[in-house]
Write the structure tokens for this entry.
Amino acid sequence: MATHALAPATTAYRPGLYEWLTTTDHKKIGIMYVINSFLFFLIGGFFALGVRAELAQPGLQIFTDEHVYNEFFSIHATVMIFLFIIPILAGLGNYIVPLMIGAPDMAFPRVNALSFWMLPLAGLLLLSGFLTQGGAAASGWTSYPPLSEVGPTKSPGPGEDLWIVAIVLIGTSSILGGINFLVTIFKMRAPGMTLFRMPIMVWTMLVTSVLVVMATPVITSALVMLFIDRNYGGHFFDPFGGGNAVLYQNIFWFYSHPAVYVMVLPAMGIVSEVLPVFSRKPLFGYKAFIFATAGIGALGFSVWAHHMFTTGSVFLPFFSLMTFLIAVPTGVKMFNWVATIFRGKLSFSTPFIFAIGFLTMFLIGGINGAFSAAVPVDFALHDTYFVVAHLHYVLFGGSVFGVFAGLYYWFPKMSGRMLDETLGKVHFVLMFVGFNLTFFPMHMLGLQGMPRRIADYASNAGWNDWNLLASIGGFIIGISILPFIWNVFISLRNGKVAGDDPWEGNTLEWATSSPPPPYNFDRLPEIRSERPVFDARHGRLTPHDEMGPA
Amino acid sequence: MTADAPALGVVETGEVGQPTIIAEGHVARGISNPILGMLLFITSEVMFFAGLFAAYFSTRAGNHPWPPKQFDSILNPLSLILVATVILITSSFTCQFAVWSIRRGDRTGFIRNISVTFVLGIVFLLLQAYDYSLLFGEGMTLGSGPFGTTYFTLTGFHGAHVFGGVLMLGVILYRGMAGQFSSRHHDAVEAVSLYWHFVDVVWIILFSVLYLV
């Protein structure tokens, strides 16, 4: 790219591992976020396969003790939500946001390192519950009291306390990360990078960070109170002692519903970066997309009680209406994406295919979510497998496909090497087929009344075939990860050299080398629109700008 | 970084070897990074206390009479706790005087005011500890009913935040005595003072809710 370069900054030499352990470079931290989260993805997947193996047939085959089954689904969900999806999106954001806005690093690099290092610590604390008397937390990822309170038939062991401590740590990590993102985005943008020229990915990280900063402390307060109830004889959530069990649900969901958008908005940002590049078109309705993102974030704070319709203690019409309203900005985005692809010059590279996977699967997740928003329907579907189907279509079909689109898209930038396209497509096909085999049957199971969180079911309930199908699909998802890991392994060694801008991208990360230098940019193109690298490539230059075609 | 390397935020745009600073927009315009970071952190703290207050009001609405009869007499606002309240409010003023001093470049005034703030913070914590010991003596603990649980959780977390604030004040006092702050360079002081005011405001709300309302 550079026809002449300034002497690159020489940093103090530190041997490899020590450098990674002590780094404050947002790119290295971002990559560590991704690797750490991916390891927890494998761990969470292991627990999921345990659950599916048990449910493949009626009767107890794998787990002789149903309590262990409870631990498995609880830790599966906790790991996937708190240690995989949220951090891997934060990690991708960590890597890409400073590059996209032309900044040399995040605003608080050392706080950034702190945010990261809390995560493996929290993960180890959480999993160490398995080593304690009574096992790991087993009251679901929601940990509702009274199930999560101390008591013989509740959660007597220290596993539940370790769960609380781990989630508080992860929450603190998220809050510090969110503050860091907001200050970075508001204060560190390159000259010319106005708010309405920022890439959509940066906008989604902005709204996500607002949600994190305002919602995560609320779950911290709920968990602190739960901890006090459990360990110091408190009475917050104990109805017999003057407390209120539904209070926990209110405070928990005040965080955990916005958290759903924390888990999906950055994935929407990734998809919004990928689709225009591989359709050779600008994103349709850039500003509409931004306002829709902000709208989802704002509405996200007013819908928490739709998780609690059946408690009978929330105002149903309000929360139902607000939930339906969320479909409006989401629908706007769906039209943005479809209109972006429409009549584009499509190239079906792996990132694009995963982005299409996101669009289709997230659409299903949105539609079955709208069903559950209707109060009478929800009364029938609450706590059935229909809800499990819905949340996986949103979080797996949506977020995880988005995450993989992002990984395939930015791997060349992170490593300087291209991933293999054939293996990528094998990965996609296996994951797409496995995903639908696993989770589509859960709609039917839910409509037939199968409850969530059960280790066993009657063999004459009519649920056998769907469950077997779901279990087969689950293992196909497991297998689909193997070509991905192999792909990363061989591509790092022998992959095609990527060059600065292998996809002919639009945004600033493609204006620097792959991988970028520690300070990110030797030079920046002029920023005149939300697609500065596109502008530079197609000669929309000012006289003193030297960015040649990449 | 070596001397001939480009400084961060400096981008070469013109002739060879003529780096031009085009990152002027980065320089000291608007709110500084540490202060914005602290404001956002305070936002998250507000939400944390909002969760605790929500639990307090919910619990209070579900329990009558409030406070329970046996604890009614010990929650007298015209007692030691009023002294503690006055002390904390005073410390907010001295903290602000310290900020104004360092803005003028008056280091002596800054150190004097921040020392007073630091000591007042410690006195508040000691008074709170003494008050706790009196309450424990009356048999009121975290476990004694919803009133004890909410009272000690809310005041305890506030106390923990005061403790954190005292640590921060100690750090900027130490740095101030080392001569690290000037009229142009004192973001840390501004940030800590914002935090200290926040802690003070939480206490005013807490005192009103627990003792007056």
Observations:
- The two ends of chain A are 6 Å apart (CA to CA).
- Residues 542-550 of chain A have pLDDT under 50 and may be disordered.
